[in-house]
Every structure is written in structure tokens, then in C-alpha cells.
Amino acid sequence: MKNKTGFVIMCIAALLASCDKYHSGISDPAAYSNVYMPRAVVNNPYITGLPLADTTYTFPYSAYLGGPLTEGKDLTIRFDVNKALVDSFNLRHNTTYELLPAGSYQFEKTAVISSGQRSTPALTLHIKTGDVNPFQAYMLPLGVTDADGQKINKTNGTTYYIFTRSYMAAIEERQQALSLGDALDWNDKNRIIMARGTQNTLVVRYKDNTVHVYTPNADGTFAPESRLLTETWPQIKWPDAENLYYINETDAVIRNTPYWAGLFYMQWKPDLTMQNASPEWTQWWLGDFWDKYTTIIPFKNYFLLVDKSTGDLLRQPLLSRVEAAKTTVGTGFANYRQVLAWGDYLLALEQEGNLWLYKMAADAVPGDKILVGTGWNQYEKIAVIGKDILALDTQGDVYRYKFDPTPYLH
């Protein structure tokens, strides 16, 4: 990830440098020269993670001379951290970030842009993670404070790093729990179902539209021999299913794909099969056209729904029909790939791979969100079983992560 980010930064810098050959005709080209940090151009603030392990973690940074002209002498560039910028950022954005603790970071305070060149060498910011509280967001405004007579770019002269020590998917310890390989439909990833079942089982749909139940072993893996979950009910068949949503050890719902996008109330049997929750059709069919919602989250006594058109989080009574009255309880959920219940919290995975934990009120209203993980977009899907996260990678392997940030949240 760091190498990809560095490549993007270099590409942007090269693009900006390429304007040199077009400066002819500019009346005062030197007036357009300015020094900035390429990291700040890519995204500012830069929200990223630190590993939970006690280690020293590093980030590259540099300064760049923009504008039509290079300089005919060496430029000494000075960097520093300005605590006042944390206060002003919080005031502008109504946030409460604290400055990264003193002593937890080190950086190179001076560097040189050599005569005729554009950039300083790549410099390194060092963070000692053991000095940083887990799951608390900190800010470090690292910026150019002196550019040897050159102007400093007001917008991109400082990089606002926002660090949270959290579960980094690529670094945290994980256990390979199951290998599904090419049994899954990799040509249409939306058809992959990987969901929690009763008795801590994992329910998976294959590309041949059969659905399999994997039972857990005591060591955290799943038995490689699966049980076939055959439809014994009318109206809904596994080829038409969009997903299975776990409610509790007895209940689940299955949603059909559009056009009808019906929702069906099912119940688990002790032998790991399923049946209609009632012999009465109207008692287990919860209506059609549930595709107005990107996902359904059974949470305590409610269905939580992400409205596809607005990104709002809606609430209605658990196992109520599609026409039931809904209350808007949250906003800003459009960018999440998945939203899952995790105990008394909601776990939300962003497209960019950040994993957020929402504190939830008793009436299922989300409160503050906390960054609890980064880099989780390396996986196709995640599922929650107990406190653990199960993550499916692009090779069809399922990994188990021990996950519990709650001791640090109180």
C-alpha cells in the first residue's frame, strides 16, 4: 500500500513538473513558484492507521518545488509540527483531535532541493506505536515552515496526518480458517454469499448455486467437508437469493434479487437445515421490493436499512413487512461496502478499506464512530461470528481475525 501511494505521489509531482516546457510567454514565471508537500495533494487530511503491535511504523514525506521554473541554487527546506494547526482544524471542522503525543514521533527537520531539481529526497516520519493509545484518533500537522525564500503553498504546504492505532488487515495476526478456491463465482462477485449461520457455522453459496454450511472446529478453523443446505420451501430458490442475514440462533431472513427482491423469514433447525418460519405464506413473506436498500442489518429488535438513494440509515421493527413505518436514525452510510452488527455496535467497511465501529443507543440510533481498522479492502467480503471477523480474500481463502476493541473504548 505504501509503495502504491508513493507511486501516485511521484506521478502527480511529475505531472506538475511537466508544465516547465509551457512557461514561455508567462510574464513573471517566478511568481508562480511555490513549495508544497505531495502527500497533501493526494489527500489532506491523510487518514491512516497504526498497527496495534508495539513497533515503530514509518511514513514517507517530502517537499516539492512547483511552478514553471526550477531554482538555480540549493534550497534548504525546513519542516516542523505546529500544534496550533490542530486547534484551528478542530474549530473549522467541529472535531476533537489531539496532537500525537510528544515523544511518539520523530522526523527529519531539514532537507535540500538541489539546484535544478524539484524535490527533496524521500524523508521518513517514524511513529512509536507503543506510545499511542489504541482506537483514539490523533493529528500530526507536519508542514514546511521555511523554503529558503520560496513561497510555501497555503493549501498543501502542510500534511494533516490523522492516525488511529487499530486493526490493520495486512499486519494483524490471522488464521486461515477455510479454503474455498474456485468454488465461488469470481466472474460475478456480487453473487458470492458468505454469511453467519446458526451454531457459529459459515454459510457459503458456490458458483453452481448450491449453498453449503461449514461447521466450526475447536481450533477456529472450519471442517472442510460441508453440509448441503437444500431448499425445502417454495417461492425462493438459492439461484435467486441476494443474501442470507443472520438474526439469532433461531431466525434468519433471505432476500431475493430484483425484480421482486422479496424478503423471507426463515428459521434454523437443530440439524443445520432451514424451514419457513410459519406455514402461513403471509407470515414468512415480508413483502417485495426490498432492493431499495443496499443492505439489511438485523440489530436487536430492529431492521436497519441503508437507503440506496440517500445513504440514510433507516429503522423499522424486526421482522416487519416492507411497508412498515421507518425512522431515519443516521446519515452518511452510502460509502460503505458492508454494514454488519457486531454485538452492541455496528461495524462498517468503507470502499477505501477503513473499518469503523459505531456506538449504538438502545433504540438503534448510531452515535460516535471510531476507526478500528485499515486496509480491509484487500478482502472481498467480511462476516462476523461472535467477536471474530471472517474475511474472504481474492483467492477464496477465509481468514479469522480475533477482534475486540471494546476494552479500549470505555
What's this, in brief?
Residues 33-150 form the BT-3987-like N-terminal domain. The protein has 410 residues and is mainly beta. The chain has helices spanning 2-17, 38-42, 83-93, 281-284; strands spanning 34-36, 46-51, 56-61, 64-66, 75-81, 98-99, 105-106, 110-113, 123-128, 137-146, 158-168, 175-179, 194-196, 202-205, 211-214, 227-228, 241-246, 251-256, 263-268, 274-276, 293-299, 302-307, 313-317, 327-330, 336-342, 345-350, 355-360, 366-374, 381-385, 388-392, 397-401.
Structure explained in plain terms:
This protein is mainly beta and 410 residues long. It has two domains: 165 residues, hypothetical protein (bacova_03559) (Immunoglobulin-like, Sandwich); 234 residues, 7 Propeller (Methylamine Dehydrogenase, Chain H). The protein is built from four helices and 31 strands. Strands 2, 5, 6, 8, 10, 11, 25, 26, 27 and 28 form a ten-stranded mixed sheet that branches. The two termini are 32 Å apart. About 2% of the residues have low confidence.
